[in-house]
Design goal:
This protein has about 230 residues and is α/β, with parallel strands linked by helices. It is built from 6 helices and 7 strands.
């Protein structure tokens, strides 16, 4: 009987919301999942259910090194972790900017760089951005740091594809609209989004496992509504 090589999906920020639902989707489809997150406590029940296929790593995108990363292959990397601040531009400090850009841009950049040696030949990297980070979309006061950092992540995706154009690696970006998460409530208190993380996660799974066969270096808006 021919053996099947296990597939590994790495997901950042998967202790809640979209990341958690996406991790569950990969696990339910037989994948091994590596979760990099600051808080692993909410994932303990999931770890008990998938003890052999779920690896939890306590991880801070603002400060990490190669030694923090398990020596496991990467078939899919989803840079899902994100930080948001809702403040007028005049009230945003340098510390605020460092934290937002550190988690939303610098962290993914460094993580991709450190994991390169563990990539498969056709690894698919998906950066989770926002429609607020897409040129020409509606912008909102208070979200200057967040939206501009997500715009940087979107363009980083295109730059990475150019950087690795002579390989089979694929880099794509999903610019998400309103999804009912805690982060959405920080940005738009009281707003009810039309979709939940559980609605979105099957799409992310399908995209992560198939889209790299037909597209590379693309920024795809995934949105029913933008508040």
């Amino acid at each position: 009987m021919q053996s099947t090589t296990p597939k590994y999906a790495w997901i950042t920020g998967a202790s809640r919301g979209i990341g958690l639902s996406t991790a569950q989707e990969f696990l339910s489809n037989g994948w091994h999942v590596v979760v990099l997150t600051r808080n692993t406590d909410p994932l303990q029940e999931l770890k008990e259910a998938y003890s052999e296929r779920l690896t939890l790593v306590s991880f801070d995108l603002l400060s990490f090194s190669k030694d923090d990363l398990p020596e496991l292959p990467v078939d899919v990397l989803i840079n899902n972790a994100g930080a948001l601040i809702n403040k007028p531009m005049a009230d945003i400090s340098n510390e605020d900017l460092q934290r937002i850009y550190g988690i939303n841009v610098f962290g993914p950049f460094q993580l991709i760089n450190l994991l390169r040696d563990q990539f498969r030949q056709d690894t698919h990297v998906i950066n989770i951005s926002s429609v607020g980070g897409v040129q020409g979309s509606v912008k909102f006061p208070g979200l200057t740091a967040y939206s501009s950092s997500k715009g940087a992540l979107s363009i980083l995706t295109e730059c990475l594809q150019a950087e690795f154009q002579d390989t089979k690696l694929a880099f794509n970006c999903l610019a998400l609209g309103a999804v009912q998460t805690e982060m959405l409530q920080e940005a738009f208190p009281g707003y009810d989004a039309p979709i939940s993380p559980d609605d979105l996660s099957p799409y992310i799974f399908d995209f992560a496992t198939t889209a790299h066969r037909v597209m590379k270096g693309k920024i795809i808006s995934v949105s029913l509504t933008t508040p």
